[in-house]
Specification:
The complex is a heterodimer of chains A (270) and B (325). With 270 residues, chain A is an alpha/beta fold. Helix content of chain A is 22%, strand content 25%. In chain A, the strands form five sheets. Chain A has an eight-stranded mixed beta sheet with strand order 2-1-5-10-14-15-16-17, sandwiched between helices. In chain A, helix 1 crosses helix 2. Chain B is α/β, with parallel strands linked by helices. Chain B has a single domain, classed as Glutaconate Coenzyme A-transferase, CATH 3.40.1080.10. Chain B is built from twelve helices and 13 strands. Chain B is globular and about 60 Å long. Chain B starts with a strand and ends in a 17-residue tail after the last helix. In chain B, 56% of the residues are buried. The chains are: A alpha/beta (270), B alpha/beta (325). At the A-B interface, helix 3, strand 9, helix 4, strand 12 and helix 5 of A face helix 4, helix 5 and helix 7 of B.
């Protein structure tokens, strides 16, 4: 399909702006959203300012439904907690909110993702003899495993979109049932704790979703890129049969909110 | 039992024995007992078993200085100010330290079990991941799960069926009861009542899980003041063994209500942590060439500290320039 570069709107926006806006659009009004540091913060705040005013944000370090005056730079930041409904700690957020089933949507990131939505943030190469160590899991797999929907925000590179990740830090749709280690559908591993899984992946080039078998497909392509561009930056053969068209670009109102209200200091959007 | 014993930073660090298991209060780059970490390094501690809910700048400094032989946790880095825990990464890739990975929820479960006197805590988090791959059980591979190490469980985890409601197989995570918790508190009363400001992280659980607790207090305040609003306190004095009064003890990590994260300091450290050689130069400048905490604050200088000092109403600095606008 032909994606026309002229469709880019007359005003300018950066790839980061489009990522934030595309992520914000995944929020449904009323969602309880578990959010990490960075771009996800912009996404939930933008959603709250636009189409999802009744959505609520939980930050892992302990603040529940805060109304920050200033953009936090970490989930542990005092800025997260301003005007929160409840201020608590990790036992409450990870078990009292997440494990018990309140969380609708999670925004997360990763270094590598595979076609089943498995994400790696731990090592490149063999865990016992790695080529490179990454940050480690943090709460990524906990949040992903128990939110009803998870959206990953990724950089579109061949080495990051892989047939199979080197280490499954966070569970996608086809994962291993321990202690045996056989690959099965996520539903089989989580049983009565199955609530959903990875719903979308948003990169700087495209939006991806998952079919009934839990395999990634290309959903929309960002303005300025083609299906071929996306495939060229993906390490496995993409299902492109379901492409809906072009990702909607940001509106002027969304850009203004991002730069003048949400990140007015220029922390994540310089 | 009773009130905590007042003690100096040097004396307190002297209590930690080589090979012991330690943990810290705080979260990533917030409320870490940094002055204590520096003193452990000055005293040349070795073979520490650092078990913590999450890592951060403090872990990176302690590991870079060669004090840690086992690290059990889930994450290391400096948040926005340095994306990777370079020292954990170096030890994992090049050897020199056993790295045992759990998830954040797993680590909370382990500390929670330890805090409540339970042998394990059940969880349905992070199932199906390589965190549970038996081939990646680092302590097991090192032969340390033979039951002869009192702080190392015989298994990394176990599965067991729910015997009550048929909710299926749950993951059981072994309790953690470190020898020591080293903890930074916002305010401590004369009798040892502990308050932390804003998010509580896993702080109350860390205090209860450890055999002995050392608290570094930003401020010592009258007990009667803390007892006006007891719902803001997280521990009674009898849970604390040793108390050190030490303002700015969490620098460069942040302390809500007192000071923000010193972003430039952590960025500079992060760059230095990319090689052992530059780490060592950094450690000479900021740890070994400085005899004590007072001299450390003098070296930082009043301008730097004023820049990060928190606005008393908001609890964070409104002076520090954070972005490009």
């Amino acid at each position: 399909m032909a994606l026309n570069k002229l469709s880019v709107a007359a005003y300018s926006y950066s790839p980061m702006d489009l990522l934030a806006v595309a992520a914000a659009r995944e929020v449904r009004d009323g969602d309880i959203v578990f959010t990490g540091t960075g771009l996800p913060m912009l996404a939930i705040m933008l959603a709250q300012h636009t189409h999802a005013p009744n959505s609520v944000c939980i930050y892992e370090a302990g603040s529940i439904d805060g109304r920050p005056l200033d953009l936090p730079t970490s989930v542990g930041d005092a800025r997260c907690a301003y005007q929160s409904a409840v201020i608590s700690g990790l036992t409450e957020t990870l078990y009292g909110q997440l494990h018990c089933g309140y969380v609708d949507l999670a925004f997360l990131g990763g270094a590598e993702i595979d076609k089943y939505g498995n994400v790696n943030t731990t090592v490149l190469g063999d865990y016992n003899n790695p080529l490179k160590r990454l940050t480690g899991s943090g709460g990524n797999p906990d949040v992903n495993s128990q939110a009803r929907r998870t959206v990953y925000i990724m950089v579109q590179e061949k080495r990051r979109f892989k047939e199979q990740v080197d280490y499954i830090t966070a569970p996608g749709w086809r994962i291993r049932k321990w202690p045996g280690g056989e690959y099965v559908h996520r539903r089989e591993v989580y049983g009565k704790y199955f609530r959903g899984g990875v719903e979308a992946v948003i990169s700087n080039m495209a939006v991806f979703r998952f079919d009934e078998e839990g395999v990634m497909y290309l959903d929309t392509v960002h303005p300025g890129f083609t299906v071929a561009d996306v495939q060229a930056h993906c390490g496995f053969e993409l299902n492109v049969s379901r492409v809906k068209g072009e990702t909607l670009p940001p509106t002027q109102e969304e850009i203004d909110l991002l730069y003048q209200v949400i990140d007015r200091e220029g922390i994540f959007l310089p | 039992m009773g009130k905590p014993q007042n003690i100096t930073l040097k004396e307190a660090a002297g209590l930690i024995q080589d090979g012991q298991q330690i943990t810290f209060g705080g979260f990533t780059i917030w409320r870490r007992p940094m002055a204590f970490v520096y003193e452990l390094i000055r005293q040349g501690k070795r073979n520490l078993h650092l078990l913590e809910v999450n890592g951060g700048t403090h872990s990176e400094i302690l590991i870079g200085a060669g004090c840690v032989s086992i690290w059990e946790s889930c994450w290391s880095g400096h948040e926005l100010y340095g994306k990777l825990g370079e020292m954990v990464a170096d030890r994992h890739v090049n050897g020199g330290m056993i790295v045992e990975d759990y998830s954040h929820g797993h680590m909370v479960a382990r500390i929670l079990a330890g805090a409540y006197g339970l042998p394990f805590f059940p969880s349905a988090q992070s199932l199906g991941t390589d965190l549970l791959n038996p081939e990646f059980d680092s302590l097991g591979r090192a032969g340390l799960r033979d039951g002869s190490h009192p702080k190392i469980p015989r298994k990394k985890y176990e599965f067991a069926p729910d015997p009550f409601y048929d909710r299926g197989e749950l993951l059981l995570l072994p309790a953690a009861n470190p020898d020591w918790a080293i903890f930074y508190a916002s305010q401590v009363g004369e009798e040892g009542t502990v308050r932390v400001n804003v998010q509580t992280y896993a702080d109350a659980e860390v205090i209860k899980a450890a055999d002995k607790v050392i608290v570094l207090a930003e401020e010592i305040v009258p007990e009667s003041y803390l007892r006006l609003e007891p719902e803001k306190n997280i521990a009674a004095g009898y849970a604390i063994n040793y108390l050190i009064k030490l303002p700015w003890a969490a620098h460069p990590t942040g302390s809500q209500g007192f000071y923000d994260v010193d972003a430039d300091f952590i960025r500079t450290f992060y760059r230095a942590s990319k090689s052992q050689e530059t780490f060592d130069r950094w450690a000479d400048e900021w740890i070994f060439d400085i005899p004590d905490h007072e001299r450390y604050l003098q070296k930082l200088g009043i301008g730097r500290l004023e820049n990060i000092r928190a606005n008393p109403v908001l609890g964070y600095s409104t002076r520090q320039k954070r972005g490009t606008r």
